[in-house]
Write a structure and sequence with these properties.
This protein has 17 helices and 17 strands. The protein is an alpha/beta fold. The strands form six sheets. The protein has a five-stranded mixed sheet with strand order 2-1-3-4-5, with helices on both faces. It starts with 6 loop residues before the first strand and ends in a 5-residue tail after the last helix.
Amino acid sequence: MKGKDFYNVAVYLRLSRDDGIYGSGAESNSIRSQRNLVCSYIRKKDDMEIYDIYVDDGWSGANFDRPSFKRMIEDIEAGHVNCVIVKDLSRFGRDYIEAGRLIQKTFPAFSVRFIALDDNFDSLTADFNEKTLVLPVRNFINDSYCSDISKKVRSHQQAKREKGDFIGAFAVYGYRKNPENNSQLLVDGYAAGIVKKIFAWKIAGFSSLAIAEKLNGMGILSPMEYKKSKGEKFSTGFVTHARAKWSSVAVKRILANEMYTGMMVQGKNEKASYKVKRLAEKPREEWVRVADTHEAIVPAEDFEIVQKLLAIDTRASAGKAGCHMYTGFLYCGDCGKPMSRRVNRYKGKEKVYFICPSRNKGLGCTRHSIPEEELKHLILAGLQQHLALFLNKSYVLSQIEEMEIKFGEAELFSREIQRLHKEQEKFMSLRTSLYEDFKQGIITGEDFKDFRKIYEIQYQAAEDAIRQQEDTIQNLFKAGITAGANLEKMKAKIEITELDRNILVTFVSRVLVYEDKRVFLELRAKDMFADILVLADYLDCNVECQGGKVQS
């Protein structure tokens, strides 16, 4: 029969990745070593018997939110266990405050004996100094070790982020980790195709909810289910069904992810401390962004268009999957409010027009009414007129592809640069002759100083203008005016005969309607058009210079 001081022992074993020996093989060896040490000790004791062995393998000691540890506490509270034995205090936990509270308050309250073998600590025989001085100091050392490890891990991860290495546990949907280098992302052909469709549907006017319903209707696996189908042990807090489906939130998450442009974006969240599990979102300007680390799935210009569409209300009308063609584009030119679509039905006929809603709300603006057909005609005519100028300069595209421009030779393409160089020579000559004029008494000493200062200022102004001209040319050619993708895409759409949402999204940022039915187009690519015209002038100048047509 068991005596009064017989102990039902909880053997607690723990190992985390922070301990430096975690991994295949090393993991089981360390746990086995702890188990053998504790069990060997218990076998030599006649008053002890193992009630259960509690193992937290791969769990940090920074806190006590561990599955087996919590199960052990439940058994203690139920009265099944009255002794806890660990290899050492660090296996028990590295949070010195919580560890001290458990050992010095919780365990005694339940008459539980605590033993840490390698630290020679036994709560049954420990004196006052061991309990109040030695034990807290050892727990504090363990806690400090955990803090130091956490700082080193953070520093290492930050260095990898800034280098452009991927450090996430799972690749973003549309990519997969390189089997030969886990820090590199490769395109997942199938999932990347779905991502492209999602962006294309958004640009075409579909709402995020409509895209989600379309994907579910096609039987496309959601990102979570797709990862599971690939054998990845993926879990998320966003699951609401037995089988996760596409949702508007999941679609928006993809549409807002800059990773699809080839930009590595990491460090969006961080823990306040190694003791706190909850992640806090960091300001956008503190994210780590590294360009061109992996192949892009979505062109950067399409991504920018989608971000602007996400910022406006593109909800679909009742019973329709997509929004109206002008949704998010049409604004009152006077008060700046989005125009409202109205439909008049009379004797079986339907008339659609747009109005400024401010008047109906008593905000002082006028109606600004314009019929849909008239609006469509004006927008189409405006685009055709503007693009006709671009078509006249379209030879620039072939010129860019054929020419290899050296930045140091930029001046060869600018008549303005040649003129500025001549101005510089003139100012230099004038400044040089000033001293001779002063010596011969033509000008006074005060005039000499004044004129020299004026010529120096004019010389520097010409120098700055030359640098600005060269920088303009360098930027145009360096970016290729985004010639490859941007211009080819626009060239395919440039001869427009019919207006649709794709054309509107590609070329137009906003459409402003004024009271007298004037329509003003804010072009999305206005800067690029301006660059093309500037480059065309440079190329024309180069041809003239080489042909000897430029007069000095």
